[in-house]
Each structure stands twice: as structure tokens, then as C-alpha cells.
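Input record (Table S2, row 532):
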Amino acid sequence: MSLLPPSPLRAPLALLPQEVSSYALAMALACTLLAASIVPFLFRKNIRNANGILIPPGPLLRYAFLRKYPERALSGWAKKFGPLFSIWMGNQLFVVISDPKIAHDLLVKQGAIFSSRKQYFMKNQTILAGRAITASPYDDKWRHHRRLAMQLLTPKAIQTYADVLDYEAAILVRSFYDESNKGTLPLDPANYAGRYALNNMLTISLGTRTTRSTTPLIERALQLAMEFMDLTGPFSNPIDFITPLQWIPTRTRTRGRQLHRAIIEVYGTMYQDVKARMDAGEIVPECLVRTLIETTEIEKLDWTDTCMFAAVFTLGGVHSTSGVIQWFLALIPSHPEIQAHAHEELDRVVGQDRLPSAEDEPHLPYIRAIIKEVQRVHAPFWLATPHFSTQDYEYNGMFIPKHTAVVLDCFTIHHNEERYPDSYTFNPDRYLGDELSCAESAKLNNAELRDHFAFGAGRRICPGMVVAERELFLAISRILWAFNVKSIPSEPISLEEYEGMSGRTPLPFRVMFEPRHENVDEVLYNIHEMKL
Ligand code: HEM
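Output record (protoporphyrin IX containing FE complex):
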């Protein structure tokens, strides 16, 4: 028995029985209150509409973010809960679509309801300040901006700069040849593919291009596009889903603010450069910024709008297109039989005396099939930019409330074994007989017949599809025409991991660009230089 006087710390143990029970009651009450206030933040809320119809089923917990490869979690839930399920990210309800018909029914047929954008704290509010086409809610301003952008992206408009796309693709192939010392040194293709896509976007946006010795401003534009892909994952930032995090100076918030300022600075400067050239009487090629300058009075865009406009093609169209080229180069060395088939088609249709051109495309079904298959197995966005609903809607006995974020899950659709048997295998044969371009395929009334969903769906579908397809065809057909792309035995290429939170590109890798025939040298050195 202790001889020490009772310690004040031990006092509660000495409570009388009735005091014990009121203390326990108070503790129990406090715990219940605490639990009651925490539970709504931890567990899903099953909302019903006035008819008692529930939101789509989904996981029990709420999430603050999804770990690095979110498509894997979504795919698991799609298997468990079905092709239309819901998930709570903080206080934001998401529904996830992983079926072509549902995508068509909601995003296309009900486009009037499902075409807005969630105003993410990072992407929409902080980085883009609610301005760029991709961030705008579904309203008149978006219609206006998208119409302006489309003036440069229709098949007819593309003809006005088709020679630039052609030239850039030739330069891309020549850079691989030169920089690999005629195929004797291994090369990491990332920067070359990035510069190719960047030059095409700069041409369309600003009537300019980079040379090998790039200006710091343009190098910066490439970095900004990369940073944008890293900071704008639809599920990756807790700050998007936990409001108090938005009030404190986290590293993510700082990066977002810095990126916003950098976009305004870099693209504002580029805009001013084009304006100075025009003011000096120089002829600037047809481009987005020239249109903006010529129509300043009519369009009435403020400075932030103008800068975001100048940036939007580069932000959307660089890592996406260059990503597909990189995935192609990562995949193709492990498929020599597919390369051989492509080489045979190219030799038969194009011959070895010239590079393939855009006019050859209809006659090269196997090359087209390879490009579609790369986009299926390695879409640069597994999760297309989420749409946002602006009205309550009932679909197949499920309730989708107003202000739900709607995600098209390409990963799960592209790995549906019924649609694409042996779906993890890279097999271009599955697209033989598909004579439609991706843009044409996206317009099919029967969505089950659509080739793939890499460009999204509905009224917000990628407006750059036609340009992207042209860029991909020119680059990939010419790489195959010129080279046998080989891997380096001691440097395995990972096809599972990737970089980027929204747009995804492979981890750095190197390949050998072995020239296929004697004419490669002569044809590549006969490319006529082009000056913008
Ligand atoms: C292989 C290349 C590309 C892929 C896979 C791709 C994919 C996508 C996807 C998935 C979306 C979201 C669609 C949706 O909300 O349903 C999108 C939107 C967009 N893309 Fe692309 N894209 C590519 C190239 C381009 C190019 C070259 C440009 C510019 C010329 C571009 C400009 C845009 C813009 C401005 C939007 C926003 C549209 C809106 O919100 O109304 N993209 N893209």
C-alpha cells in the first residue's frame, strides 16, 4: 500500500460512484459529439432526390486525394460498384463513368446539363484564374472563346499552316538522326517530342517557333506546360478538397500562384512581341494572337483573358501530343513484328525515296491503327478533365445532383475485355478496318463503335483533335519510315509507371534510332528550311 499522499493527478480515480457515472456520461457525450462532427467528414453521404432515388453507389469513405495512379483505384471501384459509381472527395461528389454508352447518354445527349467545369482551387481558381477555355464554366464566355479557338483548329484552318506541321515533323526525325549521330548513340526522345509539339502550338498560337538554340522564354513555356500537368490532377491535390488548406501558405498553393504569374508573364511577353512586330509593319503569319490583336475592339478581352488565351494551346496541346509520341517510342522496341509490318506497308505505299506525307494517310491503314492503339493503351490523360453538372438529373434509377463533378475514366474503358479482348496487349490489328479518324469516330451516334476515348466526350471534347491527329500521323509515320527503333538491353523501359498528375508521359528512357535504309540520310538532308 502506498504511503504517499494522494496525487492531484490521481484525484479522478478517487471519485465517488455517482460522480464516476456523471463523469463517464460527460465523456461519452463528448465522444459522441466529436464522432458525430467527424463522421460526416470521413464517410460518404448517400443523397436522395425528392423521389427517394439515391446517388450511384460507391466506396464508404470520403477521400482527401487519391494516391499516385488514381485510375487504378477507380478501376477497382468500377469493378465493384459498376460503370457509373460515385465517390466523395471531401465535400465534392464525383460520379465516374467507365462505359461508352453512359458517356454518350450523359456527356453527349445531356450535354446541356453535363458540360460545365468544376472550379478546382488549384487549376481553375489559382493557376488559370477561371479564364482559359478548359477552365471556363459552360457559359457564353466559354462559347465565345471556344469559337475563337476553333477558327484555327478546323480541318480547313489547318490547311493554312499544314506546311509548318509537315516541316516540324521532318525536323523532328532529322533531330533524332543527327543527335543520335546517325543512329549510333542512344537518345532520350522526351525533349525532341516536346519541342516538336511546342513548335506546332507556338505556330498556331503566336506565329513563331523555336530553333535548336531555343530562347529562354520558350524553354520556359515548355517548363510551364510540364508544371501545369503536374499541378492539375483531378484527384491529386488535398488542397482542392480540404478548404482550410486553401487559407494557409502550403507549397502546393505557392507553386500554383507562381505558375499563374509565370503564365501571365511569359505569354504576355509573347503577345507583346507579336503586337510589336505587327505595329512595325511586319507580316505575322495567321495565328491565334494575331486574330486577338486584330479583333481587340470587338472581342473585348481583358489582359488576363488575353494571356490565358495565348497560353491555352500550349498548355493543352504539348504534353498530350508529345506524350503519345513518347509512349509510342517506349512501346515499339518491344514489338519488332509490328515495326516490320509497318515498314513493309511504308515501303509498299510510300517507297524509300521520300517521307510519308499527310496525303498518304488514307493509304496507310496499319500506321493509322498503330497510332490509335498507342492512344488506347497509353492515353495521355487516363481521366479526361472532369465535367460538372448544372442541374439535377436522374439516370437509370440513379440520382446525379446539380454540381456533381463527372469523370470519364478512359483507363477502365480502354481495358474493358469485352470491347478490347486481351486489352493489355498492344495489338494494332484491332483497329484494322476502322477507316474513321478519331474526330470522325467521336461523332458516331453509337458510342460502342467509337475507337477510343482519349480526347474526351461531349461539348467539351478536345477541340485540338484534328491538329493532334495530323501531328501524330506525321511524326509516327516518319519515325517508322526512317528508323528501326530499338531498346538498349541494359535499360529496360517501364510501361507501368509514368510522370505527371493530369497529363502522363513515360519515365525518362533511351532508345536507339537505327536508320533503316541508305536513303534516310539524303532524304533528311534535303528538307527545305522554312522560316516563319
Ligand atoms: C493527343 C493529343 C491530345 C489529347 C489526347 C487531348 C485530350 C484532351 C482531353 C481528354 C480534353 C478534355 C475533354 C473533355 O472535357 O471531355 C481536352 C481538352 C482540351 N484540349 Fe486537348 N488533347 C490533345 C491535344 C490538344 C491540342 C493539340 C490542343 C490545341 C490545339 C488541345 C486543346 C485543348 C483545349 C483548349 C481543351 C479544353 C476544351 C474545353 O474545355 O472546351 N488539345 N483535350
